[in-house]
Structure formats: structure tokens, C-alpha cells
Amino acid sequence: MDDRRKLANEMDELQQDMKELEVRYEQYFAGIEKREPYRERSEMARRLRRYTNRRIIQTDLKFRYQGLTSRFMTYCQYWDRILRLIDDGKYHRHTAKLSRPTVAETGPAAGGSKPNEVEKLHAKLSEARKACGLDGAAPSVGKVAAFLDAQREKIRSRYGDQPVEFSVEVSAGKPRIKVSLKK
């Protein structure tokens, strides 16, 4: 019984350490950590290999070990793929999300949506909904402003700081906000 309890405790530790390793890798990919946690990864692999030739009689512990091993192998494949993308220069860290102020910190006009522009677009969207005969209220002014800011951010990440304009179009019987680059 002591062997079973000891093995269960070791599996708990392995599971906890694997979660910590996953967090460390995510921090590395986000740019928070400066170095890859390679040493911790090789230590985890060594600890898991220690149980490879060990005969585990208890079915639940054997199942748990196999699950931990397969999860670790899946993480390793994922981490290797991301590391390859980083080496090739094709992986873009999402550091903008870490440093970008939120709407709650800066107020509703922080993202660049002018209140007058948002209100005009909201009014056009409401008119277009009525013209299409749609029931229910149009999205609130706050939701429209949040949508505009999100679209501006997407276009900024793709095309740089080019100015954009928004318009309301009806397609397939539904009004939609169209985003286009200003010319």
C-alpha cells in the first residue's frame, strides 16, 4: 500500500511540474521569459522515462502515467513547432496585447474611435436594420465602438498605421459594418 501511495504522490508531482513547465513555455513564447526552459523540459523527460520500464500493477496509476506521457509528448511537439516558427521568423509574439491599455484604464476613446463617428455609424446601422425589417434593437454604441477599435487593431497589425473608414452595407438581407482602407 505504501508503494501505491508513493507512486500516486509522484504522479501528482509530475502533473504539477508539467503544468508549471507549460506556463513557463507560454511565458517564453509571449516574450516574458528570455530563455527557453530547456533544462526543465529535459528534467521532465528524464523523470517520465524513469517509469518506462517499471511495472505498474495498479491500472489507475498505469493509465495516469500513460496520460501524462502522451500529454508531455504532445506538448513537446507543439513547443518544437513553435520554436521552429520562431527560428524561421514566422512566429509573431503577441506582446502588443501585454502592453496595450484596456478600455477600462483609458476610457472609451482610447482606441481611436471618435465619439461622433461611432454615433453616426450606430445611427446608420439602426436605420439599415429598420430598412431590412429586422426585429430587436441594434447593438449599443459601446459595442459598436469596441468593434471599430478591434477592426482598427486588426488592420493596423496587417497593414500598418494606414487610415481606415467604416460604412454600413446591406448584404444577404443583413446590415454589416464594412471596413476599408482610406485612399
Count of helix runs = 7
Strand content: 5-15%
Strand order of the largest sheet: 1-2
Helix content: 55-70%
How many domains make up the coordinates? 2
Structural class estimated from helices and strands? mainly alpha
Order of helices and strands: HHHHHHHEE
DSSP strand count: 2
* Backbone shape: elongated
Q: Give the C-alpha Rg.
A: 26 Å
Describe the secondary structure blueprint for this structure.
Elements: H1 2-30, H2 38-49, H3 59-88, H4 95-99, H5 103-106, H6 115-132, H7 141-159, E1 164-171, E2 174-181
Helix pairs in contact: 1-2, 1-3, 6-7
Highlighted features:
about 180 residues; elongated; mainly alpha
Give a quick precis of the structure:
The chain is mainly alpha-helical and about 180 residues long. It has seven helices and two strands, in the order αααααααββ. α1 packs antiparallel against α2, α1 packs parallel to α3 and α6 packs across α7.
How does this structure look, described?
The protein has 183 residues and is mainly α. It has two domains: 2-95; 100-181, no CATH class. Helices cover 64% and strands 9% of the residues. The chain has helices at 2-30, 38-49, 59-88, 95-99, 103-106, 115-132, 141-159, and strands spanning 164-171, 174-181. It starts with a helix and ends with a strand. Residues 100-111 have low confidence and may be disordered.
